[in-house]
Design brief:
seven-stranded antiparallel sheet, alpha/beta, 15 helices, TIM Barrel, homodimer, globular, nicotinate phosphoribosyltransferase, six-stranded parallel sheet, 2 domains
């Protein structure tokens, strides 16, 4: 759990840089830092911006309290003058960036932080932690949503992730189109619908399956989901319908060959008159296994481990780089990373049909405007104050849904391939 | 950040099970839940128990406050009677388990929670979140420590992980033998040594590299690390020694072919008289790339992404299963998972030389005692109260170090293979 403010969720070197810059007079140089990805994770065709809403709240409360400053002094992380400066620290700069739920590609300037060097560099670790985590989850979740083809998706991976990361993962999965979650903290904090009925333990607790189902229906009613695979699945389904009647809302199957089991379960439910009873499947589902069940009579998928761990890509590979100092573009030269300095402005260009065809990113300038262009950056902080009327989580969810419709259809394939939309970065002229 | 107590970091279904069990009279059945892994992640030969220390603190404060109960009632997650019961909830059962830093293998009963069904089931999600995350990080980190062969290892991955998961990851990496971290919150909360000096941005901020190095040395002294790869590395090293003199503590290289660069840098430093100046390398290092640098003149490794994401295994695959009800072993039958019910007692058997050869896990009984056997379970909670004198983080770190010495040498190889120590699970007789 977080003790105190988020300011200490920060790398030691951010503070030593602040110390040194305060001492040598470079602290106030006007600086622009940019968050972008050099590449997408292997096989991925798009990234999804997520976490910005959480980040705004964290930056708002980013300050150092007395205990934290005492700790920093006691370990000699900073000198007394720097501790004094930190005691009064409030971010006073500007932040603009892609809307939460926006797609991004290699080179997209998804967040731009500008102000004095010291106020911008202090935010680096926190900005990257939040965006790298949440964006990784949202991108994996979006692929599962595409694979589910309109069927419901429950996020149930909390137990496979750090207890607080799980809450953020739930938020990112919901942003990406998941319909509900098992995580109650995410329900309370973010208003996400929660779902859940019983585990195998509940059946094992009872003298037999029928007693367990009866207890559940007595408390939750027939509009519930009975977990039928603790013992024999066919018998479990018969018992479920015997106890709850054909009005039972759903059964859940959590193990075995889900493809075969879904077919047999549907036939059995129909034969028992439970034609409206839904089938929920879970158990190590990822985007590929969800896609493989497309032809089966499944109504709702439950995904856990794969969504909260980013399905093979647990971090989004975003970096936070100084690109401009006092109006001069700067860039690290070693390794010929071919990064272009300077503050960037980004638009996405679309065909008249609405399909996105290119992202144009101009350093220290503005792209020529054409019909079908959309500006990708919105303001988040101006002069240290959060902008009013930022998009809600529901807005961001809809924004992503529209974004996924706008990219070329190959971009939605699960197979590996190039980024769905190419990015052209234009250097300062 | 955590709002309120950890109780809501919990799956919805834990509470509906509590509701239903309170109503049908099964709530107080004496239950035993067990945490174990069915298998290790692909390629791994051991797991490392981590997170238990954090978990004890979280269980201690596991209660529901008024806002949380109002939320649960407003969404009809629980009925009024259950909300009332939750308002008074304190865990009153017993917990025993493997010491933090203990090695584990498939089938090892790493945590056993016993008490009434409802008090035990409520802890499921939180127990698994903490242990799955922290154990995954510790296992990956332990392999890096082995690969580093006594050289220093700095954990610097905070920016690649959720901001709170990063703090827990740091703790797990330190437990596994990392020497320090970049994460200040982990330094403050857990007393872990922190380290850090400057990023490329600090060099780019200045008019030239010499000015940046001079500013850093003016603030941090010569006992610092200069990052020499912003522009040309050889020139960076010459400038570093020019500014700091041959007493400079260390240089850091964060990009390029680290093997070649370490050799060239050592030669250059020596030729400049800086024979004691250390070489720190970083940049997407994992256990394999660390091992590949064993012959190079590297003094300290910095690892980031790979450690905080578990190097390909971001979750430990631990499950929390009901194994006993009112003294009767229970087990889920579907899928023939071959799990054996009943409360387990575990010992690890050793040769006279001290090498571990087998783990014996007996259901509802105690293994025959032999010379060289070590009991693996220690008490954590008795009657709801945490046991005094639990191992410190330093104790756990030493415990793991000794544990890794005790397993057969093949178990420390990075290549894939069987678990280092076989586990024999003996059913109740």
């Amino acid at each position: 759990m977080t003790k105190g403010h988020p300011a200490l969720l920060t790398d030691h070197y951010e503070l030593t840089m602040v110390s040194a810059a305060l001492k040598d007079g470079t602290a106030d140089r006007r600086s622009v830092f940019e968050v972008f990805a050099r590449r997408l994770p292997p096989g991925r065709r798009y990234g999804v911006v997520a976490g910005t809403g959480r980040l705004v709240d964290l930056i708002r409360s980013f300050r150092f309290d007395r205990d934290e400053l005492d700790y920093l002094r006691s370990r000699d992380v900073v000198d007394a003058a720097t501790a004094e400066w930190l005691a009064n620290f409030r971010f006073g700069g500007d932040i603009e960036g892609y809307a939460e739920g926006e797609l991004f590609f290699p080179g997209s300037p998804i967040l731009t932080v500008s102000g004095t060097f010291v106020e911008c560099v202090l935010l680096e670790t926190l900005v990257l932690s939040v965006l790298n985590h949440d964006s990784a989850i949202a991108a994996a979740a979006a692929r599962m949503v595409t694979a589910a083809r309109g069927r419901g998706l429950i996020e149930m991976g909390s137990r496979r992730a750090h207890e607080e990361a799980a809450v953020a993962a739930t938020r990112a999965a919901y942003l990406a189109g998941f319909t509900s979650t098992s995580n109650l903290a995410a329900g309370m904090r973010f208003g996400i619908p929660t779902a859940g009925t019983a585990a195998h333990a509940f059946t094992l607790l009872h003298d037999d399956e029928e007693a367990a189902f009866a207890a559940q229906v007595a408390t939750l009613g027939r509009n519930t989901t009975l977990l039928v695979d603790t013992y024999d699945i066919a018998q479990g389904i018969r018992t479920a319908i015997k106890v709850a009647g054909p009005e039972l809302r759903a059964i859940r199957i959590d193990s075995g060959d889900l493809s075969v089991l879904a077919q047999h379960s549907r036939e059995l439910l129909d034969s028992l008159g439970a034609t409206e009873t839904k089938i929920i499947v879970s158990g190590d589902l990822d985007e590929y296994s969800i896609a493989a069940l497309a032809a089966e009579p499944v109504d709702i998928y439950g995904a856990g481990t794969s969504v909260v761990t980013g399905s093979g890509a647990p971090t989004a590979g975003l970096v936070y780089k100084l690109v401009e100092v006092d109006g001069r573009p700067v860039v690290k030269r070693s390794e010929h990373k071919a990064t272009i300095g300077g503050r960037k402005t980004a638009v996405r260009r679309h065909k008249p049909t609405g399909t996105a065809i290119e992202e144009i990113v101009v350093s220290q300038g503005t792209p020529d405007s054409r019909t079908g262009d959309r500006r990708l950056q919105i303001p988040y902080f101006v002069g240290g104050s959060p902008v009013d009327g930022l998009p809600s989580l529901a807005d961001s969810r809809e924004h992503l849904r529209q974004g996924l419709i706008s990219i070329p259809w190959e971009g939605l394939k699960l197979s590996a391939g190039d980024p769905a939309v190419p990015v052209t970065v234009v250097p300062a002229s």
